[in-house]
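Sample intake sheet
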Amino acid sequence: MKAKNTLELGFDGIIIGTEMLKRLNFSEKKLYDFSSEVKSYLKERRTGKLDKWKSIEFPAMTVASKYIDIGEYTYYAGAYNLGTFEEQCVRYLSEEENRDKLIIGKFCSIATGVSFNLGGSERHLKEWVSTFPFYYMFPEMGANDGYYQKGDTIIGNDVWLGTDAIIMPGIKIGDGAIVAARSVVTKDVEPYTIVGGVPAVPIMQRFSEKQIENLLDIAWWNFDIEDIKKLLPYITSDDIETFIQKAREIKNKHTGGNI
């Protein structure tokens, strides 16, 4: 039996609530008169938009806040969340003076739903009798302000942040790190380390200590983009030693040294 407040559209076995139809700007009258329009809409939603995740944003080109600094080529794949990177990912930031900054390096991959919490102490202090923000509710009654800065949130270069990961205030994530989907990062993350969980804990290092040392020294993300393009066959392979060799050749050419 059909559920209350739902309407059988008579195609593909789809049942859609009348309240949802209203949110989609389809009145019940319009549904009856133009059911083919609803059918077309739903068909597109079901089969024609599976690749919407390919839509990306380059925040370096779109952010406006003076407290956000994003490196070149870093992208946000936020197709499954409404709004821009600044609207969706940057939480509890205001344009008041003396606020912590969000600094993200180059060539980072930021998945949909990632959140950077820039609320400092968040005004809820566990050490106090109550965590309630009385200062903001009764500003003239002598309550103490629970806000204090926790330092800039700094994400290195070539970092991959998985879907719905939450980065807490003041966290530093090193170059080449990976944060698993839906992790809550409450402690700093070392370069080229994979972390995951709630709270996030180290899972493994991506490469050997010596390889990580070489990669950090080379810092390929600071190369000219034309040099990076030359390295792409090596960047996109698991032959780390060959990449290190080729990248050092390019770096030495520009520095005039043998490093």
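Comment: The longest strand covers residues 201-205. Confidence is low (pLDDT under 50) at residues 1-18, 26-34.
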